[in-house]
Amino acid sequence: MPRTTRKTDRPDDAASLEAATNAGALGPLHAYVGYALRRAQLAIFQDFIRTLAEVDLRPAQFSVLTLIDAHPGILQSRAAAALGIQKANFVPLIGELERRELTRRVPVDGRSNGMHMTPKGRALLKRARALHDRHHARVTASLGDAELRRLIDVLERLAAVDGAPAH
Amino acid sequence: MPRTTRKTDRPDDAASLEAATNAGALGPLHAYVGYALRRAQLAIFQDFIRTLAEVDLRPAQFSVLTLIDAHPGILQSRAAAALGIQKANFVPLIGELERRELTRRVPVDGRSNGMHMTPKGRALLKRARALHDRHHARVTASLGDAELRRLIDVLERLAAVDGAPAH
DNA sequence: TCATAGTGTTATGGTGTATAACTGTTAGAG
DNA sequence: CTCTAACAGTTATACACCATAACACTATGA
């Protein structure tokens, strides 16, 4: 079978791979914004999940609690839209929080529910915030204050890409 | 595409939502790096997927092809590690690429496979790169060149958080 | 009143990620 | 040389997340 005339019998020796794992031996990949974003987002979410494991809150749950706490009585549909979550996917999310008695739904009219924190939810969120502060400090340890603000600004601009066509 | 429900105007029916839209609609959320990262990463991946739909490559598949192209013969395990993918999850991924005859596995010894591009794979990757260039240009349109480099640098530092305990 | 829009819900499919367990292979210690 | 431990790939499973369609019920307003 006609092997490529590439002399390299070693597909990738340890050194080469070592370089691949750390440095920019990912080929052009290391210059791609989307790729860098995925890696960073994954690493940070992992740290978040581990850090908040003792209050058993995942990022999505924490964000919902934070939003409800900041906006008591907010409607499910509004909250879902604000968080960029489909309303359909929001149902089991808020359902789980309510099952744990952290939030409750209060009917506003016949078709909409306002969401509120329970005392238990507020207490848990307080603990969660303390844990999140540690997480946040660890994550931003390598960033200056101005650098952090610039990062958030850039990320928000990137999130507005939205080239979605109409269906 | 969920952006369509996002209202930029102010329906002054819900006071809580009202407050939400101006002074940091999301409460403290807008200052959290992880949250901003998730939103940006989601938006960019959506754009990526739509842009590369005509070559039917998802981000993970594109990254694998790019890596193999840059490192012909790289082992599955090495590639998976370099991309931060579990080796178990890498199997159906590379399996699909091989089924489409874009890559092929060449046994190096009895237990390991080197991965290579097929001519068909190289041709598709070339097309994919052209599409990706358009995507990349659109994504980074609002960024200066220096800003982009700084962003990548910051993201790579963030990806190195890794407070993970031994696995 | 009655068509229309809004709200929440169920159901379903696809994708990504993590973990455990298993097979076969290689390498190394004794 | 043998035997054990580590390695590479694979299978199976479980869960979280994201997207879409279809539905029931309610509110709105022409």
Describe this structure in words.
2 copies of one chain form a homodimer. The first copy, chain A, has a domain at 45-159: Arc Repressor Mutant, subunit A, CATH 1.10.10. The first copy, chain A, starts with 13 loop residues before the first helix and ends in an 8-residue tail after the last helix. Chain A has helices spanning 14-22, 33-51, 59-70, 76-83, 87-99, 119-139, 145-159, and strands at residues 74-75, 103-107, 113-117. The first copy, chain A, is globular, with a radius of gyration of 22 Å. Chain A is built from 7 helices and 3 strands, in the order H-H-H-E-H-H-E-E-H-H. In chain A, strand 2 and strand 3 (113-117) form a beta hairpin. Chain A has a 3-stranded antiparallel beta sheet. Helix content of chain A is 58%, strand content 7%. Chain A is mostly helical and 167 residues long. Chain B binds a DNA duplex (30 and 30 nucleotides) through helix 5.
Give me the secondary-structure topology.
Two copies of one chain form a homodimer.
Chain A lengths: L13 H9 L10 H19 L7 H12 L3 E2 H8 L3 H13 L3 E5 L5 E5 L1 H21 L5 H15 L8
Chain B binds a DNA duplex (30 and 30 nucleotides) through α5.
Query: In one word, what is the shape of chain A?
Result: globular
Percent helix range of chain A: 55-70%
CATH third-level topology of the domain at 45-159 in chain A: Arc Repressor Mutant, subunit A
Label the structural class of chain A: mainly alpha
| Unreliable stretches covering 5 or more consecutive residues of chain A | 1-24
Given the structure, what is the number of helices of chain A?
Answer: 7
CATH class of the domain at 45-159 in chain A: Mainly Alpha
**What is the spatial order of strands in the main beta sheet of chain A?**
1-3-2
Largest Cβ-defined interface: A-B, 77 and 82 residues
Q: What is the distance, rounded to the nearest whole angstrom, between the alpha carbons of the first and last residues of chain A?
A: 48 Å
CATH architect. name of the domain at 45-159 in chain A: Orthogonal Bundle
Cα gyration radius of chain A (Å) = 22 Å
Our estimate of the beta-strand percent of chain A is: 5-15%
According to CATH, the homologous superfamily of the domain at 45-159 in chain A is: Winged helix-like DNA-binding domain superfamily/Winged helix DNA-binding domain
